[in-house]
Amino acid sequence: MTEPASAETASVRNPSARLIDGKAFAANLTQTIAHEVRAFHDRHQVTPGLAVVLVGNDPASEVYVRNKALQTHRAGMRSFMHMLPETTSQAELLALIGRLNHDPEIHGILVQLPLPAGLDPVAITNAIHPDKDVDGLGEVNAGRLALGQPGIVPCTPLGCLMLLKSELGDLRGLHAVIIGASNLVGRPMARLLLAEGCTVTVAHIDTRDTAALARQGDILVVATGCHGLVRGDWIKPGAAVIDVGITRISLPSGKTRLVGDVAFDEAVTRAGRITPVPGGVGPMTIACLLNNTLAAARRIVGGAG
Ligand SMILES: Nc1nc2c(c(=O)[nH]1)N[C@@H](CN(C=O)c1ccc(C(=O)N[C@@H](CCC(=O)O)C(=O)O)cc1)CN2
């Protein structure tokens, strides 16, 4: 008699994982935020304002900040763009942040990363007032997250968590493996998943046998910036895979393509669910920025609505 297939062997045979549609999720979230922005304005006669600061001419950053401004307008909020030359000094940037901190029309401030060499990202993110730090990267908000206290949560890990909860529901007891320990994604992601009751393993540049650790993850979050790093056989059959990496590669045809940190064609035959690149985590980053800006405006204006 043939043994019934276990959940594991069944999912190994599963030819294709379910795609996690971050683009659609983000569009819905943005629509909800737009509705709440109108209600907030009706109640307080205040429109939430977001200031985005870009220093230099990094082409990818230019695309991201343009999209941030576009989505901010779509959500009914005010967008204030500050495009500064590569030669901007630390003192000039700190002076701008000081003015934005005191500007009552601005409820959220972010400085696009990476910054040009010579500017200290830690000093600069810490100069943003914690109530307006909608990226959640300053030491006050990072400390609150580390201590499990309420605060502003970084946009990309917040977006990943929203996707995971909508796909899997209760995360309690699941083993989450995070590859990458950056302050932007890996570390805050670990703290968020710990708060959800996951057992969390963080692999980083010095980790030995990252593949063996990855294979233990019911949830695998990959944020390394190293495209194609995670191969199909790194993935536990049936796992939920969240690919945060976005790299533009050149093809032999001369065209370019965006790819993630996970070898998608291999992973899709092993994972239970997976985010695509593009259209997965990226759009969630911007939707969560709008979410954080509205939340900041609510706190600053002092009302609940
Ligand atoms: N201050 C910050 N700097 C950076 C952050 C951040 O959260 N705060 N994250 C990344 C870049 N980023 C937002 O700033 C970002 C990256 C990607 C996307 C996105 O929507 N990607 C699309 C593809 C877009 C394209 O065509 O290039 C997708 O994945 O579908 C949005 C925001 C580093 N810096």
UniProtKB/TrEMBL annotation:
Binding site for NADP(+): G180, A181, S182, I205, I246
Domain Tetrahydrofolate dehydrogenase/cyclohydrolase NAD(P)-binding: start-end pairs: 154-299
UniProt keyword terms in alphabetical order: Amino-acid biosynthesis, Histidine biosynthesis, Hydrolase, Methionine biosynthesis, Multifunctional enzyme, NADP, One-carbon metabolism, Oxidoreductase, Purine biosynthesis
Coiled coil: none
Highest taxon of the lineage: Bacteria
Complex and partners: Homodimer.
Function: Catalyzes the oxidation of 5,10-methylenetetrahydrofolate to 5,10-methenyltetrahydrofolate and then the hydrolysis of 5,10-methenyltetrahydrofolate to 10-formyltetrahydrofolate.
Transmembrane stretches, start-end: none
Descriptive protein name: Bifunctional protein FolD
Listed GO MF terms: methenyltetrahydrofolate cyclohydrolase activity; methylenetetrahydrofolate dehydrogenase (NADP+) activity
A Pfam family this chain is assigned to: THF_DHG_CYH_C
PANTHER family tied to this protein: C-1-TETRAHYDROFOLATE SYNTHASE, CYTOPLASMIC (PTHR48099:SF5), C-1-TETRAHYDROFOLATE SYNTHASE, CYTOPLASMIC-RELATED (PTHR48099)
Catalytic activity: (6R)-5,10-methenyltetrahydrofolate + H2O = (6R)-10-formyltetrahydrofolate + H(+); (6R)-5,10-methylene-5,6,7,8-tetrahydrofolate + NADP(+) = (6R)-5,10-methenyltetrahydrofolate + NADPH
One GO CC term on file: cytosol
Similarity annotation: Belongs to the tetrahydrofolate dehydrogenase/cyclohydrolase family.
Keyword NAD applies: no
Gene Ontology biological-process annotations: L-histidine biosynthetic process; methionine biosynthetic process; purine nucleotide biosynthetic process; tetrahydrofolate interconversion
Pathway per the UniProt entry: One-carbon metabolism; tetrahydrofolate interconversion
Domain Tetrahydrofolate dehydrogenase/cyclohydrolase catalytic: 20-135
EC number annotated for this UniProt entry: 1.5.1.5, 3.5.4.9
